[in-house]
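Our platform keeps sequence and structure together, in a single record for each protein. Such a record has a labelled line for the sequence and another for the backbone structure tokens. This encoding replaces a full spatial description with a residue-level series of whole-number codes. Below, we set out a record of this kind in full and without editing:
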Amino acid sequence: MAFQLKDRVKETTTTTGTGTISLDGAATGFQSFVSSIGDGNVTYYAIEDGNGAAWEVGVGTITDGSPDTLSRDTVLSSSSGGSKISLSALSHTVYATYPAGKAVYIDTLGNLSHRKSPFTNAGSDKSLDTDDEIVFCNASSGIMTVTLYAATGNGGRRVVIKKTDSTAYRVNIIRTGSETIDGETSISLKYSNESVTLVSDNSNWFII
């Protein structure tokens, strides 16, 4: 059994209720689930009830048979509040889909969805590299210096630096070479839970 995504997969069904879907064949110009996704494989599906109102999106398993079937293993969303819809006694449309909640995309800020940002805990001076995206700084033992990696050649990269302790010791953030941080040679975090987000324009760092 494997998970598969395929294009232009759509069939009809006259199945009623909340059970496994009996597939009646591919719509004109489309593939069937069995011929594209394959027997025993799993895919995302969507069902549109022939009544024009009810719908369901989920994960299902394809079985080659007489008829071919699609099990409704996991419902991801539906017009019934996330439960299986009870299909009416009409002809319905079933097709392969790519659910919004599972989609991987780059948002308007350039961030990749569903990605966990790596973080680093630091309790003393630290020089950053491009693997450091979020840095939690505990300066309870004394003033800390965080040295940024070069903005040049790293345009679009972002670094978040946060002071996590409640002492009066500062976290000083300094540049590399002659680059600047919002036009300055350095900036400081002075207060507990204060943070800054920096983005490189490929020449210097800017606070956003």
Observations:
- The mean pLDDT is 95.
- The chain has two domains: 10-102, 119-207.
- Residues 107 and 163 are 27 Å apart (CA to CA).
- The longest strand covers residues 55-63.
